[in-house]
């Protein structure tokens, strides 16, 4: 037995050794824009087709981050009707000027060049990060834009804008074309400008979002240039080391922050590559930064290794404590999202309202999440009755216990859980009317690049009994799907390699990572008026040690 004092000693030793551990915000959270105000740090990240948009995380120690608010919390702020995977809200910039937070971001509705629907850039401000308006101070808008609409060579452009009308009122100028050969695949993006010690700095991302992604920087004595690139560009680029076997890949899209003590850090996006693919998408990582001759060096100029931690603040809670949601109040936990715009209320939480009470015998007084399913499913570019949480760990279990229901589901009605990446890539398990036979079945449907494989097991009941739990075990690099009834052993129904949740289908982008969804759907038909009320009474997430190596070498 270890004496008490020794284990305390070991704990405090660990606190010092493992300070800030990457990723600092796990689960897909690309394009981090970091900011310090007093003793608080904030990070805003991209949200794509998820609603509400632009999560803002808060920390007081750079190691432990909590979801604080969302900048785009109403449909008017996040117009996402019909957007495909990868489109939607991109690359926020968060700043704080004279007591107000400012957020600039953009929405992309489609990337189909035939449609010729172009992105819109917008900005908003807030006193408290909770209520957002459109009140501004003097501002230059720097953006990634094409040189013209004929040859469409992207670069970093700038315009002074009217804060009243939002119009460009100054000269529209090309600021910088980055460090790569300047052709239409160069993709300089995500410009962030800041002022330090008599220089303006222009920090950008380049190289596309895949393995060649990187951060580069230039400086000038004027916000309009001319710009001098840093002698040590790219300042962040794991690919520069020739090691495509590193687990941390696609390092880039950085923003800088200074602590009250004068230490500097860079927050950036990176993928954790797991046996070749990244089911969690781009997460938020942090590294150290030093200045010399007015130029920044990140992580002492070395590659970012997953195992390296740094700083001298309290350790992260790792693995994080379990998450449990019993949907006991009428507000959903803010870590749940819907897809696109929830223009109708398609769920309720807490105790059921009276209008639903004549259905679900046996669940009429139970708190929980009750869906009002519509015709849409997770395969549609619309808003199915579904709520989603980002997958936070490469070694975790997501499980959801159904509310009992008094009646049967027909062939087209389903309720279940999903490991979701896009409308093309979601792996589902749940209960539905059986395929090719009568009655209800447990089912799993796996989607692989346009093919679909369904397994089913008869439920042998004309109602959905109490205490059925649906389970997804995510342990890199695979997902396994099962169910249990009460306390009986888990019945595993299907398994799929996580690479099927980590690629862009032809003609589409996927910048998100995996989420776990709860859903109910009429799968193309309205939910019948005599079909039972369905929902969930509890969700549990349990996280384990990930033990992901520094090199993406799996056997
Ligand atoms: C960037 O490239 C565009 C298109 O080739 C060119 O018109 C522009 O002058 C360049 N900008 C700078 C700052 O070099
Ligand atoms: C852009 O330049 C790079 C590097 O020279 C080259 O590999 C790539 O093919 C070029 N792309 C286009 C569209 O010309
Ligand atoms: C990773 O790749 C580098 C460069 O090819 C090689 O030197 C190194 O041995 C590799 N490391 C592992 C763990 O495979
Ligand atoms: C890694 O991927 C390869 C195929 O690319 C596969 O054969 C192998 O089984 C995978 N390894 C693990 C541990 O899943
Ligand atoms: C349903 O029947 C069709 C036609 O026989 C068959 O191809 C399919 O696999 C069956 N589906 C299930 C889930 O049994
Ligand atoms: C998906 O199918 C398309 C078309 O057949 C093919 O080009 C692509 O390589 C496939 N992708 C994967 C990941 O299998
Ligand atoms: C329902 O009964 C069939 C036939 O006995 C059996 O194979 C199946 O496992 C049963 N389903 C469940 C959920 O136990
Ligand atoms: C379901 O589980 C809860 C909690 O364990 C228990 O109180 C309840 O009696 C169970 N219901 C049934 C029908 O077994
Ligand atoms: C995942 O967690 C389980 C349960 O703690 C553990 O047995 C397993 O080794 C972990 N897997 C990895 C890759 O660390």
Automatic annotation (TrEMBL):
GO terms for biological process: carbohydrate metabolic process. It comes from the Eukaryota. It comes from Hyaloscypha bicolor E. The active site is at residues 31, 189. GO terms for molecular function: hydrolase activity, hydrolyzing O-glycosyl compounds. Residues 324-525 form the Beta-xylosidase C-terminal Concanavalin A-like domain. This is Glycoside hydrolase family 43 protein. Belongs to the glycosyl hydrolase 43 family. InterPro entries: ConA-like_dom_sf (IPR013320), GH43_C2 (IPR041542), Glyco_hydro_43 (IPR006710), Glyco_hydro_beta-prop_sf (IPR023296), Glycosyl_Hydrlase_43 (IPR051795).
